[in-house]
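Thread: Modeling a multi-component assembly for a lab meeting

Hi all, long-time lurker, first post. My supervisor asked me to bring a structural picture of a complex we are working on to next week's group meeting, and I have zero experience with this. I have the sequence lines for every component (416 residues in total). Could someone generate the structure of the whole assembly? Inputs are pasted exactly as I received them:
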Amino acid sequence: MKNKLKRLLDPNISKEEEDQIFEEVLKRKHDEDLRTKWQKMLSNDYGITRNSINLKRKKDTSKYIKVVLAAAACIALIVTLQLFTSVESDPYVIAQQYLNDQEILHPGASKGITDENHNRILAIQAFNTKQYSLSIKYFQSIKAETKEDKYYHGLAFLLNDQYIEAIQLFEMINSNKGPFRQEINWYQSLAYVLNKENTKAGILLKRIKNSDWNHIKAQELLKNINKE
Amino acid sequence: MEHKNFGLTQASFEKLIADLKRNDTYFFEQVFLKQYKETMNYLCREYKSSHEDAYDATMDALIEFRTRFVDGKLQYGNLRFLFTKIASQMLFRNLKKNNTTIDGTILLAAEEDIEPTTSIEELGRLNKAWQILGDSCKQLLTWHFYGKMKLSEIAEEAQKSPATIRKQKERCIKKLKDQFGLKTILKS
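Re: Modeling a multi-component assembly
Sure thing. I ran the full set together rather than chain by chain. Output:
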C-alpha cells in the first residue's frame, strides 16, 4: 500500500491506475472506519468484545450478580413466608379477623319490654349503624341496664377498640348460666386476646364446650395461643 | 426463504444494497450485527476457534459481505449459509496469515507480514488528507470508489450532468493528492 500511495504522486500515472489505487486505499480507509464503528456497536449494543477475558469477567460478574440476586430473593421469600406464617398464626391477628368476619347487629328490643327507653332505642340504632362511640354514650345513659343492654354495651366497647372497658363489662355479667353465656365467653375471650391477656383468654376459651357457639374457632385460637 | 436470508425479503435485499452503495450502513448493521454472536459461536463450536479468532473472522466476513453486496456478487438466496461459509474462510485465512494452525501451533512468521505496520502509518496520512476534503468531495469519492456507483448513477442522484460529476471527481482527486503529497513531503 505504501508503494501504491507514493505511486499516486507520480505525474505520469494513468487515469486507470489512479482510479484503481484510489479504490484500494479508500476501501482500506472505509473498511477500517467500519471496523471501529462496529466494534463500538458490538460492545455497546450487544455486549460483544474481542477480549474474551473482559467477556468472561462480564459473564462472571453477571453470574455473581445473578447468584447474589437469587440469594437475596430466597432470603426475602423466607422472611416473607416466616412473617406471613407468624402473622397468620398470631392470636391477636386471628382474634381481630374473627371479630371482623362476623357482622354483629342488635336484634332490637327484647319481647316483653314495653317501656321502651328512648336512650336504648338510640343506642341500638347507633349500634346497628356501627356508630359505637355514640352507642356507648346512649347505653351509659340508660338508667337501669338490662343484661342484654350490658352485653351489647360491652360489644360496643369491643367493636370500638376499647378492650379494657369491654372486659370489665363482660367480667361483670359473665356467669355459668344466662341467655348470653356462650356469646359473652366468646367475645370476652377475643377481648382478652386483643388486650394482650392471652393467659386469661386461654382459660376462658377452654370453657367453651363442644356444643357451644364458635367452639371450633375457639379451639383454633387456643391452639395458636398455646404455640406462643 | 426469509429465514435463510436473515429475515430479508427480496425488496429489502435490494434496499440494503442501494443503501450500502451510498455508504449508508444502518440497515446492514441492523441485520448483520445481530448475527455476530451466532456466527462466533458457530466458529468456536465447529472449528474449536478461540474467542478472539472467531471475533476477527466474523468482523472480516462482515467487511467482505459489504464488499460483495456493492460489487453485485451476492444473490438473494441463502445469505445465512454464505455468511457462515465466508466467516469460516476468513478464520482459516487469518490463521494461515498468522502462521497459526487451528490447534494453536505457531509457525515462523513470514517476512511479508511486517508490511501492514507501515500501511497503517500511511493510512493515517491518508485520513488526515481526507479530512481536508469538503463533504461533497467525500461523498462523491466514497460513492464512486467504495460504493461502486457509476458516475452516471451519481449524476442522476445529484441531478447533475455526468460531465459535471466527472469534472468534480477530477477536482476532488487532485485536491486529495495535493493534500496527501504535501503531508508526505512534510513527513519525509
